[in-house]
Write the structure tokens for this entry.
Amino acid sequence: MIHTIVFDIDDTLYSYTKADAVAFPVLAAYAQERFGVSYDRFYDLYWKAYREQIRRVGHECGATHSRVLRCQIILEWLGQPLTFAREMEGLYWNTLLDAMEPTPGMEACLKTLKAQGYRLGIGTDLTAGWQLAKLERLGFLPYFDFMVCSEEAGADKPNPRFFALCLEKAGCSPEDCLFVGDNPRRDVAGADRAGMHGVWFRPEDGKDGQAETHGAWFRMENAAAAGTEDMLRIRSMAELPGLAQTL
């Protein structure tokens, strides 16, 4: 019987894909105005800096998601003052917060699950500060009993350490815990390997459109790496309360 349901945040509780498509051009425009860097050059620098983050700190950990570190690296390459790094980070994330659109039916789903007596948690990559800011801006923070982020766990999903900490905070056995996320490799396969019930949130709309965003290759690579044939999946959050009661 399901006792606890853990949710990913990005592209699960809200559309990161759409919000990032607003925030990244704003950051690129800032770089063009401040440093005379074209959009195309900034795009290349941004992803080169991301790869450099991975080289320096290791793959799949919280620090690889740090935009302030990424901006610091870019500024060093451009020979610009490091004083701009925090401003650039804030510009990106605050623009993204303003552009966030919650997943249709998300709040109604959370209300139903709480009324049914489930404990609800968050299991997300990235750093705690900005992930908490997202939950607060969306108005979802009061629904959740705990959060695990990769900064706290010391590893991104699908590392077993991440899901072990989720289960520790959930306070239940793996078979009594359900994990919902948009990424089949990180969220679903990782949860399944931990003995949890992984559920792939795969809405009919929105996924094909990822190819239009600058980070699409990263998300699509993760999806391609996982065998998805036997995965539990939902296409809308309205399906989740009923599914949880059948497990």
Summary: Residues 138 and 154 are 26 Å apart (CA to CA).
